[in-house]
Structure formats: structure tokens, C-alpha cells
Amino acid sequence: RSYSVTGVQTCALPIYSLSEYIGGQEKMDEFIKSNLNYPKELPDNNSCCIYVGFIINKSGGIEEIGIRNSINIVYDECAVKLIKQMPNWEPGLVKGFPVNCLITIRVSFF
């Protein structure tokens, strides 16, 4: 139970929730593993992590994809392509209403 400052019982639901990949982190990791293509233009022994930011809109769609730490244009293009292939997410909520959320995830090339 939650109470206001005046002692009145209030709703115990969280005020906000962040956007979430449908199925959670484990399902997103599976999606990345099965859909990420290692760039053929680069040697097999290269490995790196790229951080990709994007907006999950009120409908759960992905918008405004951007690379946060560019290592190489080839890696960047592969990471953006991967994000574009993702299914819709659960949108973030504020007071029960959908809102746009900024998300950043790591894409690892090994």
C-alpha cells in the first residue's frame, strides 16, 4: 500500500515504466545473436562494442537511430541495420500513458 503525504491511501502502481523489448532482455539478446551479421569487409579477429541509441515511440516503434560511439562506418551500418530489423517494443509509460523513451543498447561484434 502507498500513502500520500496527507495519509490518504494512493495507487501502488509505479508512476513510470521504461520501454521494454517484448520478452525482456533474454529475448532481445537472442534476437541480436541470431540477426547480427559480422561485417565481411573486416578481418575475423576484430572485435568491438558499439552503443546504439534510438527512440521507442508511443506505439512501440523504433525511430531516430544513432550511433553513440562510432568505431568504424562498417560496424555502424551493421548495428543500425540490426536495430531497424527489431520488432516493436512495449512503449514507456508515465502515469499509465505511453510516452517516447530514449534507449541505448550495446551491440557486440566478436
Strand and helix map with partners:
Elements: E1 2-3, E2 9-10, E3 16-17, H1 24-35, E4 48-56, E5 62-67, H2 73-85, E6 92-94, E7 97-99, E8 101-109
Antiparallel strand pairs: 1-2, 3-6, 4-5, 4-8, 6-7
Q: What strand line-up does the widest sheet have?
A: 3-6-7
Task: Give the SSE string.
Answer: EEEHEEHEEE
Global morphology = elongated
Number of strands: 8
What does this protein look like?
This protein is 23% helix and 33% strand. The protein contains 2 helices and 8 strands; from the N terminus they run βββαββαβββ. The strands form 3 sheets. The chain has a 3-stranded antiparallel β-sheet, with no helix packed on it. The protein has a 3-stranded antiparallel β-sheet with strand order 5-4-8, with helices on one face. A two-stranded antiparallel sheet has the order 1-2. A hairpin with a 5-residue loop joins β4 (48-56) and β5. The longest helix has 13 residues, at 73-85. The chain starts with a strand and ends with a strand. The mean pLDDT is 87.
